[in-house]
């Protein structure tokens, strides 16, 4: 069983328009509404990869009911705390001329002290029966920045490995709790370290520094440029050939799903990265956010390039 937590779930609403223009009125050519938020995307991808996901977090209002119904329809086991606020809707407008995307993300409901306490109790029980836990996404209002660190601590005490995918201060505050895996993207690692990924030497040094702080595996995902992963003191570069992409929202979640499946099946690190990269890239080929097709994952796995980076610090 792989547990996913989505503290700030969302309906991901995707509008396709012929050409997006600021300040203009558009008629959508296609519209999709999906149960989303990073952890829910991970859960859906895990199911497609043949794993056994169990989705947890907070859901509220009509939007929360829609998300819950979708999870039921998709056959994803779940146990969410119902909250008094309304789960958010996140908007993604995709310009069909170049498949660029413009997102508007709501901040989500305010979680009360009591609702958070109910969640802590559930997670403490759940971490006794799950060897793997994925904590993904932003923290909703009312939830302290230290919450992911707390969850990591609870999980570790029960022998559960945590894969953490979050950003900004929520990521910074969780590093000292030593999650097993983190996956900042270009923007997130720059925010965390103050260095751009354009400086590869600096990026490699930063990944080593994070491993030395006790994070077993660190991937910096670089969108269409692939990723750099650090594990057991070594660095690996993954690249994928150019693909006919339509929607990259959720690629990071699909990558995380591939990585946790790889580790849970005791695959080699190269195989974990290959599966994660192919799953991340396969997500970009589907119109809805956070969906992959297994045939595409299998096809892309064959064309992913993984190489170990020979690097020693110049300092
Ligand atoms: N345009 C693309 N073409 C091919 N593969 C891609 C593309 N974009 C992303 N990927 C794959 O997905 C992985 C994760 O992508 P990315 O770095 O964009 O994550 P992210 O910013 O966390 O995404 P999100 O927050 O939308 O889930 C990449 O390492 C790569 O393997
Ligand atoms: O606001 P957060 O929680 O950081 O990100 C939310 C979100 O943009 O991330 C997913 C894509 O990764 C979408 O399903 C969702 O709308």
UniProtKB/TrEMBL annotation:
The lineage of its organism: Bacteria, Bacillati, Bacillota, Bacilli, Bacillales. Keywords: ATP-binding, Kinase, Lactose metabolism, Nucleotide-binding, Transferase. Catalyzes the ATP-dependent phosphorylation of fructose-l-phosphate to fructose-l,6-bisphosphate. PANTHER family: 1-PHOSPHOFRUCTOKINASE-RELATED, ATP-DEPENDENT 6-PHOSPHOFRUCTOKINASE ISOZYME 2. The gene is pfkB. PROSITE patterns: PFKB_KINASES_1 (PS00583). It is an enzyme of class 2 (transferase). It comes from Paenibacillus psychroresistens. Belongs to the carbohydrate kinase pfkB family. SUPFAM superfamilies: Ribokinase-like. It comes from the Bacteria. Pathway: Carbohydrate metabolism; D-tagatose 6-phosphate degradation; D-glyceraldehyde 3-phosphate and glycerone phosphate from D-tagatose 6-phosphate: step 1/2. This is Tagatose-6-phosphate kinase. GO terms for cellular component: cytosol.
């Amino acid at each position: 069983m792989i547990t996913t937590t989505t503290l700030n779930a969302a309906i991901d609403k995707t509008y396709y328009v012929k050409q997006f223009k600021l300040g203009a009125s558009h008629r959508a050519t296609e519209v999709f509404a999906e149960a989303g938020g990073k952890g829910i995307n991970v859960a859906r991808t895990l199911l497609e990869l043949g794993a056994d996901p169990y989705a947890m977090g907070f859901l509220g209002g009509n939007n929360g009911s829609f998300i819950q119904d979708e999870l039921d329809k998709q056959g994803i086991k779940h146990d969410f705390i119902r909250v008094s606020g309304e789960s958010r809707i996140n908007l993604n407008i995709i310009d069909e001329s170049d498949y660029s995307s413009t997102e508007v993300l709501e901040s989500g409901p305010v979680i009360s002290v009591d609702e958070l306490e109910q969640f802590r109790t559930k997670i403490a029980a759940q971490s006794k029966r799950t060897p793997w836990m994925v904590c993904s996404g932003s923290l909703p209002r009312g939830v302290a920045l230290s919450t992911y660190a707390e969850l990591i601590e609870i999980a570790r005490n029960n022998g559960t490995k945590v894969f953490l995918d979050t950003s900004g201060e929520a990521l910074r505050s969780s590093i000292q709790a030593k999650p097993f895996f983190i996956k900042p993207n270009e923007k997130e690692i720059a925010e965390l370290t103050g260095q751009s990924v354009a400086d590869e030497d600096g990026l490699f040094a930063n990944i080593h520094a994070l491993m030395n702080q006790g994070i077993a595996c660190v991937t910096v995902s670089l969108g269409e440029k692939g990723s750099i992963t650090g594990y057991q003191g070594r660095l690996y570069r993954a690249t994928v050939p150019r693909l006919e992409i339509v929607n990259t929202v959720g690629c990071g979640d699909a990558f995380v799903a591939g990585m946790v499946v790889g580790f849970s099946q005791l695959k080699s690190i190269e195989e974990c990265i290959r599966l994660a990269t192919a799953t991340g890239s396969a997500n970009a080929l589907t119109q809805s956010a956070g969906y992959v097709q297994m045939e595409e994952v299998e096809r892309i796995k064959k064309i992913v390039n993984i190489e170990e980076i020979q690097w020693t610090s110049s300092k």
